[in-house]
Write a structure and sequence with these properties.
15 strands; 23% strand; 31% helix; Aminopeptidase; alpha/beta; 12 helices; 439 residues
Length: 439
């Protein structure tokens, strides 16, 4: 007979608090080391200044990967290597956006379209796009570790994505997440604070226009996934850290909330539910608990996926605090509870959602949605963005019923709308192109 499941909240809280208090001294040491200078910001600057935009499939991305590998080896990180990933190669080509109604003008102001719509006007826009999808090319995820002193077989993954959108240097998205992860582990090494379990930095390729890097990691490490006790993703910029969000059991949530209190000196002690990320999604679907670094996002979408995503938008002191926050969650004795989803067994695999793509016919301005198995452009701009379409299963339209996807560690279930028609995808593509300005 299976044991009856309770939320474990009352029993977990005192034990978690006692466990967390043991790490006050090393936590303070890490915070002091991370915040005493601008080393992390300087590393961000060197990568952005040297390599510029690092889009999937480009030589700039591959040169940046080579440079990061050499830096990690120089820092003394362990088991530094790369793992191959076949990635899409998309080239923007010539493009233009012209406002046709209520007047003729070159379109540069997306908010103007929003104001027109709010007044009940019906702006018409002509998009001309010469984008091409070329044959896949090989790229690489970058992996490095600091081995655990007591439970080296248990793994805490932490990372961000190396690549950027094609027109931007990607300082906050996501050079900052990469450097925060690297620097956190480098500081542990420099301070001789060897963790209880292995901390593995994974810097992901191909985040902006596909999910292949996460799938490649999942497939390469499938045998050890039962020992992945936590996966942390930093992909929201390195502004002032607020804390973490986590998808895990109630007992694990209480444990992490207690550990999070160690970050109170830098204002990053908030812990909420719902942590996830595009990079760690494939291993979360196999049961790994997921956690996301939460920061002040009030300015994030001012610059996201634009040429304005540059170093001058980031405060070195906030970057340093993000480094300190990124490191602390992985050392508690109670972390194995995070991997005990359900009854202590690895949950069954959640089938991946098929990919879609939405194409705008080049040089015509007419939007024709094509479901051809390729990845959508990766937008994160809200309800009208194309990213919402990527969550819908083709062929799942059944008398208005919705399909669902559930993370085994989460108490919540995400509802996926029925598959939109070609016309619906077309309309949303036009909305995204005109009001978000991120093509």
């Amino acid at each position: 007979m299976r044991p009856r499941r309770g939320n474990g909240r009352n029993a977990a809280a005192p034990a978690a608090a006692q466990d967390a208090s043991r790490y006050r001294a090393p936590a303070d040491s890490l915070i002091r080391a991370a915040t005493r200078d601008s080393a992390a910001w300087n590393r961000m600057a060197e990568l952005v200044d040297t390599f510029g935009p690092r889009f999937s499939g480009t030589p700039e991305l591959e040169r940046a990967i080579d440079w990061i590998v050499e830096q990690m080896k120089r820092d003394g990180l362990e088991n530094v290597h790369t793992e191959p990933v076949m990635v899409p190669r998309w080239v923007r080509g010539q493009e233009s956006a012209t406002l046709l109604s209520p007047r003729n003008a070159e379109l540069k102001d997306a908010m103007m379209l929003r104001r027109m719509q709010a007044r009940g006007q019906r702006p018409r826009v002509r998009l001309r796009m010469g984008a091409q999808t070329l044959p896949d090319v090989q790229s690489r995820n970058v992996v490095a570790e600091i081995r655990g002193r007591e439970r080296p077989e248990e793994v805490v993954v932490v990372g961000g994505h190396i690549g950027s959108w094609d027109i931007t240097p990607g300082a906050m998205d996501d050079d900052g997440g990469c450097v925060a992860s690297r620097e956190a582990v480098r500081l542990m090494k420099a301070l001789a604070l060897r963790p209880r379990r292995t901390v593995r930095v994974v810097l992901w390729t191909n985040e902006e226009n596909g999910i292949r890097r996460g799938n490649a990691y999942r497939d390469a490490h499938r045998a050890e996934l039962p020992n992945h006790v936590l996966a942390i993703e930093s992909d929201a910029g390195v502004f002032a850290p607020r804390g973490f969000s986590i998808t895990a059991t109630d007992a694990a949530f209480e444990a992490v909330r207690s550990i999070g209190r160690l970050l109170a000196p830098i204002g990053a002690d908030s812990v909420g539910r719902g942590g996830s990320g595009a990079d760690i999604g494939p291993i979360m679907a196999l049961g790994a608990p997921g956690m996301g670094l939460e920061v002040d996002r009030s300015r994030y979408f001012w610059y996201h996926h634009t040429a304005a995503d540059t170093l001058d938008k980031l405060d070195p002191r906030e970057v340093a605090r993000s480094v300190a926050a990124t490191r602390l969650p992985g050392n508690s004795k109670r972390l194995p509870e995070l991997s005990r989803c359900l009854d202590g067994t690895l949950p069954p695999r959640v089938p991946p959602l098929p990919r879609h793509s939405a194409e705008l016919t080049p040089a015509s301005g007419s939007a024709a949605a094509v479901q051809r198995g390729g990845p959508l452009p990766h937008y994160s701009g809200g309800r009208d963005s194309l990213r919402t379409i990527a969550l819908r299963r083709p062929g799942a339209r059944t008398a208005g019923k919705a399909t669902h996807a559930t993370n085994p560690c989460s108490r919540s279930t995400r509802t996926l709308d029925k598959t939109p028609s070609h016309a619906e995808i077309s309309a949303r593509a036009e909305i995204s192109a005109s009001t978000r300005g991120r093509f």
